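Question (not urgent): is this output format expected?
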Amino acid sequence: MSEFKCDSKVGDYQVGYFYEIVNGKEVILDYAVLDESGKVIMSGFNILKDALSWAEETSCRDLADLIESELQKDDSEPELEPNKTTNLYKPR
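Got this back:
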């Protein structure tokens, strides 16, 4: 039965490897990136550094997407309707 050992955390990601104990020694089976719930997001990396780089790039992209969507929300201007008492426009 393989186990996961977390080596680093990047944002919401856990970066590490799956291993088994064979003849008393830890044998690495796969390097992987897991989400906060422990679900494998990406695996099959040759070295831990590749998994770490992927997690950093993905985490930065996720953050950039979040920031962009928040900025787009702020950019949307409210529709204006005339205020009958002052003849000025006010947000709906």
